[in-house]
């Protein structure tokens, strides 16, 4: 992307672009004290897609990993949107003043998970995804200007089959977590309805959520 931007003639653009490599859950540590008017992102959806697995061949070819140990560390440090690996059962929000509220938020979803051999992994996805995104929203809140905005695009996902099917409404869960992190929800706009294997649900959608500092 930087090469593309540098190829734009100077007379056509006055862009000043910086790419900072790091963890979005600690983005406040990457900004050098800068404050921003707009923060825009689309996180991994809680849909069981493990991008370190999908792109492992490319990662090795690009030299992002040199050893199996480095690959394992990277996989364990990614956002917990999938149960492909067993993450440590540790959650940041448990030590926050909103621990009880987050537990109440997640309780109905956790209760909807069928009691089968996928139960533990699915519980980890629900808790881990909420925990990671809560950290992202907290970190972003520290670097937004008082009149700024945060916009995220996220898709909900359906899990299981038959009577054991349940939906993770990521747009609503993240919106509530954002309120715990010091944001106010300004708008939730449905971008498109989603479909999974001929199954449709009222909350199976992709949404644009607009936040402002509370």
Looking at this protein, list some descriptive labels:
214 residues; two-stranded antiparallel ribbon; alpha+beta; 6 strands; 34% helix; Rossmann fold; four-stranded mixed β-sheet
Written overview of the protein:
By secondary structure, this protein is α+β, with helices and mostly antiparallel strands. The protein has a domain at 22-47 and 91-213: 3-Layer(aba) Sandwich (Rossmann fold). The protein is 34% helix and 21% strand. A 4-stranded mixed β-sheet has the order 1-2-6-5, with helices on one face. The chain has a two-stranded antiparallel ribbon with strand order 3-4. Helix 5 packs antiparallel against helix 7 (170-180). The longest helix is centred in the middle third of the chain and has 24 residues, at 119-142.
Helix segment tally: 7
Helix share of residues?
Answer: 25-40%
Q: Can you tell me the CATH superfamily of the domain at 22-47 and 91-213?
A: Vaccinia Virus protein VP39
CATH topology of the domain at 22-47 and 91-213: Rossmann fold
Radius of gyration, Cα only, in angstroms?
19 Å
Average pLDDT over all residues:
92
Helix/strand/pairing category: alpha+beta
- The span between the termini is 33 Å
Q: What is the architecture of the domain at 22-47 and 91-213 at the second tier of CATH?
A: 3-Layer(aba) Sandwich
Low-confidence region ranges: none
Shape: globular
Describe the sheet with the most strands.
4 strands, mixed
Tell me, what is the CATH class of the domain at 22-47 and 91-213?
Alpha Beta
Number of strands: 6
Order of helices and strands: HEHHHHHEEEHEE
Spatially, the strands of the biggest sheet line up as 1-2-6-5
């Amino acid at each position: 992307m930087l090469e593309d931007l540098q190829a734009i003639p100077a007379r056509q653009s006055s862009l000043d672009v910086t790419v900072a490599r790091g963890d979005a859950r600690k983005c406040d540590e990457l900004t050098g004290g800068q404050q921003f008017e707009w923060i825009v992102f689309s996180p991994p959806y809680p849909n069981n897609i493990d991008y370190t697995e999908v792109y492992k061949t490319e990662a090795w070819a690009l030299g992002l990993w040199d050893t199996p140990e480095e690959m394992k560390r990277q996989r364990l440090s990614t956002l917990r949107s999938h149960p492909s690996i067993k993450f440590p059962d540790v959650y940041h929000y448990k030590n926050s003043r909103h621990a009880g509220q987050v537990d109440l938020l997640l309780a109905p979803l956790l209760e909807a998970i069928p009691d089968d051999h996928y139960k533990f992994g699915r519980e980890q996805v629900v808790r881990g995804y909420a925990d990671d995104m809560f950290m992202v929203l907290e970190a972003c809140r520290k670097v937004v200007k008082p009149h700024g905005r945060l916009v995220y695009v996220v898709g909900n996902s359906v899990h299981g089959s038959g009577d054991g099917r349940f939906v993770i409404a990521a747009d609503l869960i993240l919106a509530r977590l954002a309120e715990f992190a010091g944001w106010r929800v300004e708008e939730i706009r449905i971008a498109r309805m989603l479909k999974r294997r001929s199954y449709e649900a009222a909350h199976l959608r992709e949404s644009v959520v607009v936040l402002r500092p509370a």
